[in-house]
């Protein structure tokens, strides 16, 4: 399937050489406006994008030649997949490429929070030496509930299984392979809420999962909990989280993704009062949507997408 590809975002340096090896011509349009893309997309067979702009119906209707869209990452909420597939356009992504990065990042954040690592580090750098005040909590013996057991949820389970925890998973669309994951018990959401000390969210953003973690879900948990979100910001209601951080129902939160991010994930859209609370709370660790953003995942995303594009030609 030699042809032309429009790249709207940067990828690993190996990506374009791999495409050219497949006889594709590549147009790098990293600074094109939406209007320029809409005017030119009719001339291209493929579109490669991370999250710079929505690939919606209005754009796809102008893409007369388009045969595939390659998304540099896992989530597809920025692409109108249903309409694209109706038009015969293949939609490709690479969740298997950054699953290890996300799993490691989620575990790292949790360990850092439970052991007050950032607080202790900042104090030592300021000449403050407090031991009793920085006692941590061990993961060993805790029950960890994973919501969503696709690439990201299963990777997190693989990483944290070595920590001596009991692992529960809830996923209404996946039946977990007991031979592959003998250390994970698949349960109902209600059972997870009864037992979990930690809840980690690993679901795509859909209408069903929008604000999945909210006041009702948190209130229904039997124990005080830690919450991890490396999925999508709008899967968690920030104001409701703050309410339960203040009450103590949520012992702490690890947030790599944020309700107030722009759709491109490049910055915060706004900083309302609930987020102001988070940035001043010692019970919260925040990172700027980088859980899947390692040097290794960058390369692997390019490799996975190149293979999937190549498979369209065979």
Walk me through what this model shows.
- The chain is of the alpha/beta class and 314 residues long.
- It folds into 2 domains: 4-93, NAD(P)-binding Rossmann-like Domain (Rossmann fold, 3-Layer(aba) Sandwich), CATH 3.40.50.720; 97-286, NAD(P)-binding Rossmann-like Domain (Rossmann fold, 3-Layer(aba) Sandwich).
- The protein has 12 helices and 12 strands.
- It has helices spanning 15-21, 34-40, 57-60, 81-86, 95-114, 117-125, 151-160, 189-195, 215-219, 238-247, 273-279, 295-311; strands at 4-7, 25-28, 46-49, 68-71, 90-92, 143-147, 166-170, 184-186, 198-201, 225-229, 250-255, 284-286.
- The strands form 2 sheets. A 7-stranded parallel sheet has the order 8-7-6-9-10-11-12, sandwiched between helices.
- Helix 9 links the parallel strand 9 (198-201) and strand 10.
- Helix 5 packs across helix 7 (151-160) and helix 5 (95-114) runs antiparallel to helix 12.
- The longest helix has 20 residues, at 95-114.
- It is globular and about 65 Å long.
- It starts with a strand and ends with a helix.
């Amino acid at each position: 399937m030699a042809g032309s590809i429009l790249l709207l975002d940067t990828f690993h340096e190996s990506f374009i050489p791999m495409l050219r090896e497949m006889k594709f011509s590549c147009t790098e349009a990293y600074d094109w406006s939406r209007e320029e893309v809409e005017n030119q997309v009719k001339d291209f067979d493929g579109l490669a994008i991370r999250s710079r702009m929505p690939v919606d119906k209005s754009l796809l209707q102008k893409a007369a030649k388009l045969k595939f869209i390659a998304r540099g990452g896992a989530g597809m909420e920025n692409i109108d997949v249903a309409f694209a597939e109706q038009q015969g356009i293949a939609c490709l992504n690479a969740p298997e490429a950054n699953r290890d990065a996300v799993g490691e990042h989620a575990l790292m954040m949790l360990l850092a929070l439970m052991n007050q690592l950032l607080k202790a580090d900042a104090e030592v750098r300021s000449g403050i030496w407090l031991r009793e005040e920085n006692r941590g909590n061990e993961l060993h013996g805790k029950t960890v509930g994973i919501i969503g057991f696709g690439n990201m949820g299963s990777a997190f389970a693989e990483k944290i299984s070595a920590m001596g925890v009991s692992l529960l998973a809830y996923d209404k669309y996946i039946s977990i392979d007991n031979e592959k994951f003998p250390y994970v018990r698949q349960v109902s959401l209600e059972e997870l809420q009864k037992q979990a000390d930690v809840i980690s969210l690993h679901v795509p953003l859909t209408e069903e999962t929008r604000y999945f973690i909210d006041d009702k879900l948190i209130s229904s948990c039997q124990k005080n909990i830690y919450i991890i979100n490396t999925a999508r910001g709008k899967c968690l209601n920030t104001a409701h989280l703050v309410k339960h951080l203040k009450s103590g129902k949520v012992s702490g939160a690890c947030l790599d993704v944020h309700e107030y991010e722009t759709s491109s994930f490049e910055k915060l859209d706004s900083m309302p009062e609930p987020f102001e609370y988070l940035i001043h709370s010692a019970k919260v660790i925040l990172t700027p949507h980088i859980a899947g953003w390692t040097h290794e995942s960058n390369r692997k995303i390019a490799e996975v997408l190149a293979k999937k594009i190549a498979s369209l030609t065979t």
